[in-house]
Amino acid sequence: xxxxxxxxxxxxxxxxxxxxxxxxxxxxxxxxxxxxxxxxxxxxxxxxxxxxxxxxxxxxxxxxxxxxxxxxxxxxxxxxxxxxxxxxxxxxxxx
Amino acid sequence: xxxxxxxxxxxxxxxxxxxxxxxxxxxxxxxxxxxxxxxxxxxxxxxxxxxxxxxxxxxxxxxxxxxxxxxxxxxxxxxxxxxxxxxxxxxxxxxxxxxxxxxxxxxxxxxxxxxxxxxxxxxxxxxxxxxxxxxxxxxxxxxxxxxxxxxxxxxxxxxxxxxxxxxxxxxxxxxxxxxxxxxxxxxxxxxxxxxxxxxxxxxxxxxxxxxxxxxxxxxxxxxxxxxxxxxxxxxxxxxxxxxxxxxxxxxxxxxxx
Lengths: 95, 257
Description:
The complex is a heterodimer of chains A (95) and B (257). Chain A is mostly beta strands. In chain A, 0% of the residues lie in helices and 17% in strands. Chain A has one domain (1-95). Chain A has no helices and five strands. A two-stranded parallel ribbon of chain A has the order 2-3. Chain A has a two-stranded antiparallel sheet with strand order 4-5. Chain A is extended, with a radius of gyration of 19 Å. By secondary structure, chain B is α+β, with helices and mostly antiparallel strands. Chain B has four helices and 14 strands. In chain B, the strands form four sheets. A four-stranded antiparallel beta sheet of chain B has the order 5-6-7-8, with no helix packed on it. Chain B has a four-stranded antiparallel beta sheet with strand order 11-14-12-13. Chain B has a three-stranded antiparallel beta sheet with strand order 2-3-4, with no helix packed on it. Chain B starts with 15 loop residues before the first strand and ends in a 5-residue tail after the last strand. The chains are: A mainly beta (95), B alpha+beta (257). Chains A and B meet through strand 1, strand 2, strand 3, strand 4 and strand 5 of A and strand 1, strand 2, strand 3, strand 5 and strand 9 of B. Strand 5 of chain A pairs parallel with strand 1 (16-18) of chain B, so a sheet runs across the interface.
């Protein structure tokens, strides 16, 4: 790995939009999720393992093709999540 | 939309359906950072690993959370990594995410301030940049511009010099680092400085990552605002360190095909 621990491959976003969720499933960020950690930039060691310790040869279809097209379809989940079925069989209806 | 089969409304007769009643808060599924949080009512809240095995039912189909793991990024809050499976009607399922360079098929929900929530996969630029420590939702105590860093990172990873289209090729190695030390340069042998990056694209380009996809001349012609900032003479890390718009930098292999 040597210095390639900082080497990454270039991939395009493999994202799905969950846009326009219903009011019952509105994506919000709670205030307590925004509480900053005590980490400061200079507390970061240069050799901290990060996800960019990635090998450069993994081919996945969600990369950019040479002409800039997204090979992985960007799925627009513009409608809301209707419900969540829990592993115990409970169905939580969100709208 | 071919990845989702038409959804089923319910799992079966044994399912207990929870609806909100008078005085009860409506059930809500929220995204906190990269974590799903299901509020069933005022008291019962499921989050993180407690949602393993749950199925998200959408009009287009059903997504099962097969497993949940956590990861500590180099900066910011803990990242939740979900293994998503798309359930097909015949009782089978398929992976939602393509393998990332580690061969893992993982993803997470993401809420960028001012934008719709979404799911992203770890093999994509958006997901990668979150795992690099550029969390667009995170309010850093040091006031780091993490949303701008994340967008600049996506431009960098995709070699999107003008902010309009990526020009990279899958599997191309790069070395990414920033002016704040969240990511630091590795100085891999053979790699040289490629470009400095902002949320709008590149701030300068020493040389393109994949010359077959875009040349320096094409960059000059397509992006007039980069005039004077293209070429190795005009674009070096030393010069760009003082540029206020240059948030991230990268190195890559010259002549990489």
